[in-house]
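I have been asked to look over a protein record a colleague put together. Alongside the sequence sits a line of tokens, each denoting a local backbone shape. Please read both lines and tell me whether the tokens look consistent with the sequence. Take the sequence as given and treat only the tokens as open to question. I have pasted the whole thing underneath without changing anything:
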Amino acid sequence: MHWVVLSSQPSAVVRRHGRYLVADLRTPHRVLSTSVVNGGQVEHVRHLVNHQSCEGTGHDERFRVITENGQEAYHDLVCREIELPAHEAAIMGTAANMNYAATVSEQDGHIGVTAIVTAGVATNAVCAGDPATWRETPDGIVKVPAVAGTINTILLITVPVTPPTLSRLVVTMTEGKSAALQRLAVPSCYSQDLATGTGTDQFCIAAPLDGGPPLTSASPHMKFGEVVGRTVRDATLEALRWQNGLEPSYTRGVFHALGRYGLKEATIFDELVDLLDAGDLDLLRRNSKAAFYEPMVGAAAHALAAVLDRVRHQTLPASVMPDAIVQHAAMLAASLAAQPHRWGEFRARLHAGGRFDAKPLVLAAIALGWSEKWRSI
């Protein structure tokens, strides 16, 4: 195999070939991982492996390879494929492309931190507490669906840390990952909430056993925790940019903002048929990207989504929702029409329409704003 070296440091080398990415630990490390084999906290692991284990959807044959003989047998198969001793490897699997792996390194004094992340959230993003679709029982797992979205993180530390600090790194690392999803307003695939991760996220964290006094805190109040959080956050953002096209500016559109409330690009033109005349509908279809990604329209859509969230979470009383969302829907309409001075008129018209559920109201606002854009100056 011809391996490409992505990162080389005194304590570890990160290399990639095809579907595989490996961090080889040059010295004994304390490792904490989610690996089915050699997982948990151990000191004998020398290779941290991330690999594309299947395609994102419909790869039933590969899924059978992974599951029929058990995870332990699959672990051994992966190690044979890349010529690693199975008893010294911790393995993560994902449908993400290893060529999209993002590597971010930072140094604070003598402390070095490197995060290597692959990430996909298109089909499996979840908010902690969302309804789950499988259960583990004494008789086994009742349902195990094939899912494509996963955020896998390898975190390499260049100095020793205490065992409790190694555990605390999991918290700081997870918060960094969730901060990236928050910045991109990634929606859950299972509820109306914003995602905090995916249902299949995995990690490997490694710190050398020797090399000076161990660090005793990975709290975000410490510079070490700050660097860990930032490297994981930035690497997750970069991985999502490549795997899912989630470049921050692209998330400004109305579908990203309000998709979790039912507004979908695939169906919107069918839903606007009764609200726009044929000429206006055809013009909107031809210019949909310009309209739905217009920054002021996106601002109004994200503001409307925030109000809906706050009402659901009881930050705001439900009684104010009709007036509150109509205000923002009117701003969306006025922004789409490029006539902000007509906000009051549009608010009154939308209020009189009596549509106070999110999706019908937004559709009415889009139709109103687009139909008025070229009629009045």
Q: What stands out?
A: The radius of gyration is 24 Å.
